[in-house]
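Q&A FORM
Asked by: J.P.
Topic: structure of Integrase catalytic domain-containing protein

PROVIDED:
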Amino acid sequence: MVAATTGWLETYPVPHATARNTILGLEKQVLWRHGTPEKTESDNGTHFKKSLINTWARGHGIEWIYHIPYHAPAAGKVERCNGLLKTTLKALGGGTFKNWEVNLAKATCMVDT
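REPLIED BY: S.T.
REPLY: Here is the structure written out as tokens.
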């Protein structure tokens, strides 16, 4: 997750990209620390497009906005952070993504500073 105004990156490791893991991550890692956002923007990944996400977001008063498919500029800030995070994780893993979950917090901090 990337804060729209500050560009601050928040990450949390999950075994699989699912709607349930997205919700759990938002609840356990983001909302309690930063409060409930008015809106959230995401790509059209299957873990974001499930009705479970829409129901959860509506229940929390969050407007969920989906980026235009195949239009990278719409998600520029997020894509930039994803690229920096992947590059940093690979460097910390000795050229591979081995132990990415161990290095995630350090890599996130490095991208944020």
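FOLLOW-UP: The two ends are 16 Å apart (CA to CA).
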